[in-house]
């Protein structure tokens, strides 16, 4: 397993559904997480340093975003647009940031029930990007963002794989064939 996978979803699978059919390994393979690859499985390959870098990077990006929004607000205030427009701008970014934080945080613990609705909220997340960045920062303080979800899905996939594998063991030729019941 390579540690440099970055959110590879080209196979269209989720939660460890991939089986290593071409690479010699057996069973489901862990799904890579952005910036972490598959290092989240065993916490190896610089996992701790990656978490520190992701936390610092997301906090720095949130800070830079706040500065950009401040400059935008100052330019609107200098344009003397009026108190209502300024208030509307602040409320819009605050509400969008709060909603983006919540949706991003929920995305770390469960898959969206309705992907189309989640896709429709993409513009809201873009407006409230500071909330998304802060959610990423806070989650990376304890684990790789999305690690708990991926670990649960991977564990379930491994358990199902083992259950299927154990039920298929044995020599199928040695199994007795059932005789048809008389009269049927």
Present the secondary structure layout.
Layout: E1 18-19, E2 28-29, H1 47-78, H2 83-109, H3 115-120, H4 122-127, H5 129-140, H6 147-167
Antiparallel strand pairs: 1-2
Helix pairs in contact: 1-5, 2-5
Q: How would you describe this structure to a colleague?
A:
Helix 1 packs antiparallel against helix 5 (129-140) and helix 2 (83-109) runs parallel beside helix 5 (129-140). The chain is mainly α. A hairpin with an 8-residue loop joins strand 1 (18-19) and strand 2. Strands 1-2 form a two-stranded antiparallel ribbon. The relative contact order is 0.14. The protein has 6 helices and 2 strands; from the N terminus they run E-E-H-H-H-H-H-H.
What proportion strand? under 5%
Determine the number of helices (DSSP H or I, runs of at least 4 residues).
6
Order of helices and strands: EEHHHHHH
Largest sheet: 2 strands, antiparallel
Rg over CA atoms, rounded to whole Å, is 24 Å
Estimate the global geometry from the Cα principal axes: elongated
How helical, in percent, are the residues? 55-70%
Mean pLDDT: 82
Which structural class should the secondary elements be placed in? mainly alpha
What is the spatial order of strands in the main beta sheet?
1-2
- What low-confidence regions span 5 or more consecutive residues with pLDDT below 50? 1-18, 20-24
First and last CA, distance: 54 Å
Total number of strands: 2
